Amino acid sequence: MTKVVRLILTLGTSNFSSLKVLFIYMSAEKLQPEYLKPGDEVAIISPSFCIEEKKVAFAINFLEDWGLKVRVGKNAMKSDGPFAGSDEERLSDLQEMTNDPEIKAVFCSRGGYGISKIIDKIDFSALRNNPKWYVGFSDITVLHMWLNEVCGIISVHGDMPLNFSNPEKCESTFSSLHQALFGGLQPCEWEGSFFRSKNVAGEITGGNLSLIYNLIGTRAEPVTKGKILFIEDVGEQYYHIDRMMTSLKLAGKLERLKALVIGGMNKIEDTKIPWGKSIEETIFGIVREYNYPLFFGFPAGHVSDNRAFYIGKKAKIRIKEKKATLIFV
Predict the structure, then answer these.
(1) For the segment 79-98, what is each residue's pLDDT rounded down to a tens digit?
(2) Hey, what domains does the chain have and what are their CATH numbers?
């Protein structure tokens, strides 16, 4: 089944708005929600692992300081084992906030695991008339890919309420999140290990490597051809990274990229038999045959400097001396 047919089934074509969204998707243009403004109402929900009440309380004050009204999902602080309530409870909160036209942005409280268990049960049809921002990273990569590939909507890869009170987070983690949601996201400049570096342009897709790997064969399997693919991960073993990247290669997801951007790859562990290669050597070895650039060290992921950026929006990467700059267009 083609992506366009999937979109028709997801959104319907009973009115002009649906046809407009379909046209945008077929034109390879994603639908961008309106930027936030003071007085807008936003939501905090927990579609994955559970979160402490004090973390949510801090996040409420944090977002209110931005001039926003905050509504918390009725199940956001429940627990069912490691999850924030049962599948049905987590689904209920996500569906409620998706349906409500007064909610202009949905903040996922944290990652972990769990949104994969409910994502195919969400009815996103309300977004055809009232698109809104969804914010998160890590496990929330599943939601980003679903919005991007199935619904054709731009979302924000950024930090979550779990970390709003974390003193180890850089100021740029939150200033970039504010800019991404309110408009005026500044170019992101960084230094790192670059291979075959050159100026490129394309739509950004991706997120957590483990979740992208898990989505292969699903409706939200990312289309990567002609795009800038971003990946990051945490707490894996070196051979796991190699295995997942090799699987993406076998699935054709690493061919004909505009660029491969690698964010935080921290707490990567070795096995009893040493792997013997760095992350840079491991990933470059897998894509060595291709001619697109690789940019390591992008400040996003499970790191202190977790810059917010858009999934599904076109951007440019410009090279000057030993620095790269990501600019959305």
Answers:
(1) 999 999 999 999 999 999 99
(2) 3-182 (3.40.50.10740), 188-328 (3.50.30.60)
